[in-house]
Design a protein that fits this description.
- The chain is of the alpha/beta class.
- It has a single domain, classed as Rossmann fold.
- It has 6 helices and 5 strands.
- Helix 3 runs antiparallel to helix 4 and helix 5 crosses helix 6.
- The termini are close together.
- The mean pLDDT is 95.
Length: 142
């Protein structure tokens, strides 16, 4: 089964109607929730980034709703970031100037687990050779 990771910007855009990527992100989130796309991994660093962003830029209620929705949906699997991925992510962060530390940790998780696909609107992932970024309703298993 093909696996994928979802980036914070997709999850945030799905929750904020004013976001420039809202329509595409909402389409993706709906597809994850309904099972039309394979379940996506959400590293714990990404979950924290999403919730903290929504609390700071929207409302505490929106942040709580999003946290609960992600934890309860069968379309997402929350994975705890390991020390191994964090340490490897620090090395990736030093190499790729365009990646945030969280993005670098995502890359290290993907490389360790052999996951090729990430749903993201961040084209900085395109610089990493063994990662394929998806930003539309594309099912990589088909």
């Amino acid at each position: 089964m093909v696996q994928a990771v979802v980036d914070a910007n997709v999850l945030i855009a799905a929750r904020l109607s004013r976001d420039q990527h809202h329509d595409r992100a909402l389409e993706l989130a709906t597809a994850f929730d309904s099972g039309a796309l394979p379940p996506c991994y959400v590293p714990s660093d990404v979950l924290e980034e999403v919730v903290n962003y929504l609390q700071a830029r929207s409302t505490h209620g929106r942040a709580v709703e999003t946290l609960d929705a992600l934890l309860e949906s069968s379309g997402y699997e929350i994975v705890q970031t390991s020390k191994r991925d964090f340490d490897a992510g620090r090395s990736v962060f030093r190499v790729y100037e365009g990646l945030s530390l969280t993005d670098a940790i995502i890359v290290s998780f993907m490389q360790r687990t052999g996951i090729e696909y990430i749903y993201s609107f961040d084209d900085d992932f395109d610089a990493v050779d063994d990662i394929s970024r998806l930003d539309t309703l594309v099912n990589p298993s088909k």
